[in-house]
Q: What sequence folds into this?
């Protein structure tokens, strides 16, 4: 299990003890618009190393767009993103991936024609380097590399308890398991920052409990920083270290769960006050 | 060399305006015919999301049926009515046998099915009416033949074939009729509903099967009209198949779902192709008409991947 | 009962990742290879080799090529015929420029030229997707066909405008040209096809094959996982065109002896596409099954009436063949849109639980 725990295993508590925690990613005054429609207006927040950061807000608040901006899929018109101390230029999604940002999706975006094993193996793409000519020959380096990564993938399969569906095409799996495979695929990238877009949408209580357990384990055992979007307030309050609340593309609150929960602006946004 | 590419053609255009106008007219007529084929595609794509590869073959098939019936002693107008009947049967058959069992399949499977249909129609048409090229029965149908020459300036001359003028008029009438049908009738409204969202349309009680049979029939009628016009300009034979592929770049330019797009796209391809062939084709040995249309469409696509009339695509996930 | 993996335990990932992890499959493939390399050469007559086996293997290879692009990477192509043509003309030019070089090497090298041209026409695939991309490949088809006609250098200024394969020997055997024995040609074609199929199976089970499938199944997610879309797609175009180019070169060198531009027309593109679709998108075995069906069926249709003593004009038979092939394509798409490969899987599944299906 410890095989892919990197030396970065710092829980928030430990980090707090050593003074000011390191900021992994900072978003400054980001605005994003499609044509005339403003999706995000002037949002700033940060994600600290090792924490679980929740992004919440009503439907259409711009949460998913925010994640898309973070991993380079959308390019904001204004504002900057600072990743580990360096301001990021306009970048392609695959560059974000190679810098250690992994992601799951609101609507499961697995590779439907491939098996669970292949899906999780696909997360290793960036870490595999044998070129076409070795691949053609297969015997030797390419095969060794494949086996080496297969071992890591099997560890993830064990961790997520999905051994039984290893060779099943993901299109045939029930929704809850698909979400789990998708988490596995993201974990296979061994990311610094894991973005989870509604990891528990459409799940029943039991599945939610499982998923919450996995998220906490990932955070504490592997020390992976997590940013998650979730609608289930109970889960958000339990899991997250800090919460940022968006509404109509604007940030309306930011802070520890209890503080945010008490904020008048948040209550208004959820209960609906005329704007 | 550079002179030949960038200057000489324009000098020629200026020097011989009558020839230039003649080229434009040729391009216009070719464009109208491309647009008509594309129109058939658009009708079916709008209503069912099926990219009907067989549209080009339906054009030839309709023309061949018409001529074949006439050759076998059926009077011209009766043959026309019978051909319309054949197109109706074809539409019903396609809906019943091909489209209905394949509903909800991925688009490439549907595309393949229509290519299968293409093969079937080619084989069937030749099996019944023989493979040799035929003459279109233009006069018997009461369509104008002959031509009029217009003098321009001192010694310029443009020759307009009457059949071409008729083709343009018929195309315009057909587009107007389709527009009225789409916007003013109950079936037209149902059709637009289906085009927007199949399931929502089903849930308010619109019969998909009926709508599909109707659009395939409408596409069949468009094909028949195109077949007559085209057949009148050259022979009726399945060699026209290659020309029918040209509807694809037209669709790319105009967008798969836009009727005005099909027309504008058809005209751009028609003009571009004729002008390109006559003024620049000679530089590379001629015959560029066979691929110029695709290259034009490709260049447009690189700058506007959504086509001329499409909305900007925002990718979401 | 007979087809069952129970009791076959794998003790290493290496064994689990093998091409044929199940013993029965290994026996099956060995049997097929035995038939192909021993039984057929021993018993088949020249007609069977020339009219059925050689073209079948060549088309199967072309179908593998297209399958890499369309079945595995999800990029629809209608330009296969032209890419095959590039291979054929390249091989022809190579053999006339280097008359002493080994002809098989020249055929294999010719694929490099079609790979380069394929990659160029694959460039728009970064911005253009789906059916729109089909138009790009149609542009390739018509443009290249035009080149084959209008550039006389390509066919050595022959008055006929066709390319004719010269006689070439290897190890004392005549391998190309009209005098080459069908059996020699058959072995050459079989070795090349089987070899490339094996190498492609290796590529497809590794990282590169996976990245193609990632692009096919969900290109945006693939990009967010670190796959570079342009590189990956271009590689698929290049590999696919390489294989098609080799198949095209084999088509003229080991089967037809001479070819005209019309041999590589859009009709050929469609023929190969049918093989891929009917065989099953994304399946190497399917490419063989599809090629067998699309090639052998018309041959049978051509000879069955004659064998039964029914006299039908050749033209009528040709028309009927078109009709029947078209109808069968629609029929099979309705019965099983995922092709013969899926039917084969279902059959295997049934076999696995036989004789107690519940």
A:
């Amino acid at each position: 299990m410890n095989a892919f725990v990197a030396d970065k295993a710092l829980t928030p508590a430990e980090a707090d003890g050593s003074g000011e925690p390191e900021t992994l990613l900072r978003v400054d005054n980001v605005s994003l618009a499609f044509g005339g429609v403003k999706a995000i207006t002037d949002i700033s927040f940060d994600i600290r190393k090792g924490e679980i950061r929740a992004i919440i807000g009503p439907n259409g608040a711009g949460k998913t767009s925010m994640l898309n901006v973070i991993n380079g899929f959308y390019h904001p018109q204004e504002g900057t993103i600072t990743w580990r101390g360096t301001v990021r230029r306009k970048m392609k999604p695959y560059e974000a991936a190679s810098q250690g940002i992994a992601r799951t999706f609101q609507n499961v975006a697995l590779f439907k024609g491939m098996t669970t094993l292949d899906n999780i193996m696909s997360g290793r793409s960036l870490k595999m380097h044998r070129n076409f000519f070795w691949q053609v020959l297969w015997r030797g380096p390419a095969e060794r590399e494949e086996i080496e990564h297969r071992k890591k993938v099997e560890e993830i399969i064990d961790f997520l308890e999905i051994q039984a569906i290893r060779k099943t095409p993901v299109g045939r799996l029930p929704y809850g398991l698909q979400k789990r495979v998708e988490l596995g695929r993201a974990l296979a990238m061994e990311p610094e920052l894991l973005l989870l877009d509604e990891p528990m949408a459409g799940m029943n209580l039991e599945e939610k409990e499982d998923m919450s357990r996995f998220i906490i384990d990932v955070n504490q055992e592997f020390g992976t920083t997590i940013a998650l979007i979730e609608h289930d307030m109970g889960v958000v309050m339990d899991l997250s270290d800090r919460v940022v609340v968006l509404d109509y593309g604007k940030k309306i609150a930011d802070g520890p769960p209890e503080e945010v929960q008490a904020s008048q602006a948040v209550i208004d946004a959820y209960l609906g006050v005329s704007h | 060399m550079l002179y030949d590419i960038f200057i000489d053609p324009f000098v020629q255009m200026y020097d011989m305006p009558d020839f230039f106008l003649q080229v434009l007219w040729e391009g216009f007529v070719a464009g109208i015919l491309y647009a008509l084929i594309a129109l058939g595609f658009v009708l079916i794509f709008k209503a069912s999301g099926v990219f009907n590869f067989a549209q080009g073959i339906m054009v030839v098939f309709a023309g061949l049926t018409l001529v074949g019936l006439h050759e076998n002693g059926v009077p011209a107008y009766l043959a026309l009515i019978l051909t319309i009947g054949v197109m109706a049967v074809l539409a019903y058959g396609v809906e019943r046998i091909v489209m209905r069992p394949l509903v909800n399949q991925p688009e490439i499977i549907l595309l393949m099915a229509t290519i299968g249909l293409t093969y079937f129609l080619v084989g069937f048409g030749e099996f019944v009416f023989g493979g040799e090229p035929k003459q279109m029965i233009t006069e018997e149908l009461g369509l104008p033949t002959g031509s009029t020459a217009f003098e321009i300036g001192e010694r310029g001359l443009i020759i307009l074939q009457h059949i071409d003028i008729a083709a343009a008029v018929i195309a315009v009438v057909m587009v107007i009729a389709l527009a009225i049908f789409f916007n003013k009738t109950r079936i037209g409204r149902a059709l637009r509903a289906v085009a927007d969202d199949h399931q929502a349309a089903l849930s308010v009680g619109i019969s998909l099967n009926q709508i599909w049979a109707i659009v395939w029939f409408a596409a069949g009628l468009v094909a028949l009209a195109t077949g007559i016009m085209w057949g009148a300009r050259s022979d009726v034979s399945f060699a026209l198949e290659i020309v029918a592929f040209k509807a694809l770049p037209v669709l790319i330019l105009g967008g798969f779902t836009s009727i005005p797009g099909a027309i504008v796209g058809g005209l751009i391809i028609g003009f571009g192709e004729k002008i390109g062939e006559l003024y620049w084709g000679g530089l590379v040995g001629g015959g560029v008409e066979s691929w110029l249309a695709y290259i034009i469409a490709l260049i447009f696509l690189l700058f506007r991947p959504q086509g001329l009339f499409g909305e900007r695509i925002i990718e979401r996930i | 009962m007979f087809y069952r993996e129970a009791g076959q335990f794998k003790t290493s990932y290496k064994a689990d990742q093998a091409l044929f992890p199940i013993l029965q499959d290994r026996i099956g493939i060995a049997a097929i290879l035995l038939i192909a390399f021993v039984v057929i050469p021993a018993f088949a007559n020249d007609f069977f080799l020339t009219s059925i086996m050689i073209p079948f293997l060549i088309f199967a290879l072309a179908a593998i090529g297209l399958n890499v692009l369309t079945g595995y990477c999800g990029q629809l192509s209608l330009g296969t015929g032209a890419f095959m043509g590039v291979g054929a003309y390249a091989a022809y030019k190579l053999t006339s420029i280097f008359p002493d070089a080994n002809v098989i090497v020249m055929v294999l090298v010719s694929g490099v030229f079609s790979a380069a041209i394929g990659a160029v026409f694959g460039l728009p695939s970064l911005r253009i997707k789906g059916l729109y991309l089909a138009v790009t490949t149609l542009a390739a088809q018509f443009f290249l066909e035009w080149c084959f006609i209008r550039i006389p250098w390509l066919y050595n200024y022959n008055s006929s405008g066709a390319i004719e394969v010269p006689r070439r020997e290897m190890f004392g055997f005549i391998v190309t040209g009209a005098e080459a024995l069908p059996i020699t040609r058959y072995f050459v074609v079989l070795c090349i096809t089987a070899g490339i199929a094996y190498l492609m199976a290796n590529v497809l089970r590794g990282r590169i094959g996976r990245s193609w499938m990632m692009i096919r199944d969900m290109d945006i997610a693939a990009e967010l996982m670190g796959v570079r879309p342009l590189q990956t797609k271009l590689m698929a175009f290049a590999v696919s065109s390489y294989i098609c180019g080799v198949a095209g070169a084999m088509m003229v060198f080991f089967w037809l002896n001479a070819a005209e531009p019309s041999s590589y027309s859009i009709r050929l593109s469609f023929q190969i596409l049918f093989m891929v679709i009917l065989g099953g998108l994304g399946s190497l075995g399917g490419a063989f099954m599809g090629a067998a069906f699309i090639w052998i069926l018309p041959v049978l249709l051509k000879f069955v009436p004659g064998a039964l003593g029914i006299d039908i004009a050749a033209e009528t038979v040709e028309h009927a063949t078109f009709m029947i092939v078209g109808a069968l394509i629609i029929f099979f798409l309705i019965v099983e849109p995922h092709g013969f490969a899926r039917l084969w899987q279902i059959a295997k599944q049934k076999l696995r639980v036989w004789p107690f299906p519940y």
In short: The two ends of chain A are 51 Å apart (CA to CA). Chain A is about 40% helix and 25% strand. Chain A has a mean pLDDT of 85. The CA atoms of residues 29 and 240 of chain A lie 23 Å apart.
